[in-house]
Amino acid sequence: xxxxxxxxxxxxxxxxxxxxxxxxxxxxxxxxxxxxxxxxxxxxxxxxxxxxxxxxxxxxxxxxxxxxxxxxxxxxxxxxxxxxxxxxxxxxxxxxxxxxxxxxxxxxxxxxxxxxxxxxxxxxxxxxxxxxxxxxxxxxxxxxxxxxxxxxxxxxxxxxxxxxxxxxxxxxxxxxxxxxxxxxxxxxxxxxxxxxxxxxxxxxxxxxxxxxxxxxxxxxxxxxxxxxxxxxxxxxxxxxxxxxxxxxxxxxxxxxxxxxxxxxxxxxxxxxxxxxxxxxxxxxxxxxxxxxxxxxxxxxxxxxxxxxxxxxxxxxxxxxxxxxxxxxxxxxxxxxxxxxxxxxxxxxxxxxxxxxxxxxxxxxxxxxxxxxxxxxxxxxxxxxxxxxxxxxxxxxxxxxxxxxxxxxxxxxxxxxxxxxxxxxxxxxxxxxxxxxxxxxxxxxxxxxxxxxxxxxxxxxxxxxxxxxxxxxxxxxxxxxxxxxxxxxxxxxxxxxxxxxxxxxxxxxxxxxxxxxxxxxx
Length: 521
Known about the structure:
Blueprint (H helix, E strand, L loop, with lengths): L1 H13 L7 H37 L4 H71 L10 H4 L7 E7 L5 H12 L5 E7 L4 H9 L3 E5 L6 H4 L3 H13 L2 H4 L2 E7 L4 E3 L14 E5 L10 H10 L2 H7 L5 E9 H15 L3 H7 L11 H11 L6 E4 L6 E3 L6 E3 L2 E3 L8 E3 L5 H11 L8 H7 L9 E5 L6 E6 L4 H10 L5 E5 L2 E5 L9 E10 L2
Parallel strand pairs: 1-2, 1-4, 2-3, 6-8, 9-12
Antiparallel strand pairs: 4-7, 5-12, 6-7, 10-11, 13-17, 14-16, 15-16, 15-17
Helix pairs in contact: 2-3, 5-6, 8-12, 10-14, 12-13, 12-14
């Protein structure tokens, strides 16, 4: 008996049986009976009416005929009276069946929700176990956007470039990403890939795509990573089979971006769109020495004149559906390589104009010439992304909010706020104490070749070789200097490495709080 009840309960959870229910059988039987009954009644009625009509035409209405007609009318009325209750009964039965089916559908929905909730609970429990055993990082918990995915649905993808990127920046990007989404992430990294990078990628399930700069042409080898990345991203998505796996694609600067919320939620699944985000909002392109020159130097004057009075759009963060992103990457790549119709129409001057930042000039031309399909542009008032260079977002601890006091999904340029970067490093970096500069210096193997002098600029205004931005500590300068031919010393200050080609003091040394100078031993 219990087995039968269990089977019945299980079948009910899976939904209605494919066979007919008792109510449905009653309804079908009643309908069949009613159909035959109505046909019979209609036939009788038609014969009766035909008889009345014929008699009316052939003979006068005698009292006997009138009596017969009245009898036939009464018979017809009886037929109707007999049929009517059956009609009403069947209608009521159909209504009962409909209500029963609606209840079954509601029960199915309820069961589905309960099953999903149980699955989520199991996933959460599994995540807690992973945290305790370090098998899964704390930031790897599944999110709402992932819960509804099935094996047949397309995935989402994050693309980025980490050429010579500090591992502290890399872990902030990867760990914060995994805290909000389980999307695939592919990051291009120049070889040889540092061991710390590989460890981070393994911990947070990130795919590192190695590339050898020496395999590129001499022209491309000289390109800044921010310019070189677009062709690599386009090539990755040019494989139709790979592209077909993904519904939406995010492109973000790895060195200075982190995630607070699911970055894909801003574009509903299945919706076409290419999302762009404003940078500095208090000046137009022609009023900015950087952005204005990037376009003026890389395009025809007519192109510059057409876009110079528009607002600045940041190229470090963009996203969209896969088709729109692929179309965008194709245009970026063709303009930078000076091939294709866009280059001729816009008057591309690449590669002669290439330098750090010019890719943003290309980005702004595509945006303001309206060449990007399905484009949507957000500002800092209510937008889901914060470009901190614009200084329009509210920073509270490690939280960043737009003008409507809503937490943004993506924070870009966090290094513009040193205290924010310091807190992010303290949260995510596990292999060294980032609050201790000497500990970082000791941890970096390249620094064993350099002297260390803090709060001092040993080479002020002399022996300048190159300035390298994006440094996270003085230890970063050791690596940069070792990789730049002719570099024998440096001064680190304000997240920059001022590389030098002499290692002797030339009477220009001065104290400078926060600076660190190093020279080859």
